[in-house]
Write a structure and sequence with these properties.
This protein is α/β, with parallel strands linked by helices. The protein has two domains: about 20-95, no CATH class; about 110-180, Periplasmic binding protein-like II (D-Maltodextrin-Binding Protein, domain 2, 3-Layer(aba) Sandwich), CATH 3.40.190.10. It has seven helices and seven strands; from the N terminus they run H-E-H-E-H-E-H-E-E-H-E-H-E-H. The strands form two sheets. It has a four-stranded mixed beta sheet with strand order 4-7-5-6. It has a three-stranded parallel beta sheet with strand order 2-1-3, sandwiched between helices.
């Protein structure tokens, strides 16, 4: 009887014990500075699944806080949350202010070319026409090469068709939508 009573008391105490405080993580689910071409929901689903697996395996609890891109770092400084998930690049000036984890998922831009092309990078493409999607920030990569002809596009499928048809030699686009087409 004492053993049963001890077990009941132990279970009661364990059930009443305070759970570990969750780690608060803020995220801008629009991924403002990334050119995702409508793939935001897929990226958010991946992030949610990843955090759920970490939570199960490590017995860590997370509280996800939706916030906009402009407020993420400001509220992090105010210690409103423990971490942020953000596409902020680990440049030296950012490393001076924040600690960065390893990449969770590769973002950024890639060069897409036809299968038959012999190009390995933009350096190999002098006097070639390279497309980019307007207003994605990818034109910055092309501007480093004065001898590349920049071709703006508003439609990703049109740009990729132009590569396949030989109208342009390549295109710079965000890696996440690029996976959708290769």
């Amino acid at each position: 009887m004492k053993k049963i009573l001890l077990c009941i008391v132990t279970l009661f105490l364990v059930s009443c014990a305070e759970r570990t405080k969750p780690y608060s993580i803020a995220i801008d689910k629009s991924w403002y500075s990334l050119a995702l071409n409508g793939q935001e929901a897929n990226l958010n689903g991946f992030i949610n699944d990843l955090l759920l697996e970490i939570s199960k395996e490590k017995k860590i609890y997370f509280e996800i806080i939706d916030n906009n891109f402009d407020e993420l770092t400001l509220d992090l400084k105010k210690k409103k949350y423990a971490a942020i998930l953000s596409p902020i690049e680990p440049y030296n000036f950012n490393k001076a202010k924040y600690d960065f984890s390893k990449d969770i998922i590769k973002t950024g831009f890639v060069l897409m070319i036809s299968k038959e092309a012999n190009y390995k990078s933009l350096k190999d493409m002098p006097n070639k026409h390279v497309g980019y999607i307007s207003e994605t920030g990818s034109v910055i990569f092309l501007q480093k090469y004065a001898n590349i002809f920049e071709e703006p596009y508003i439609s990703l499928p049109t740009m990729l068709d132009d590569i396949a048809n030989g109208n342009i030699e390549g295109a710079i686009l965000s890696i996440i939508p690029a996976y959708k087409y290769v």
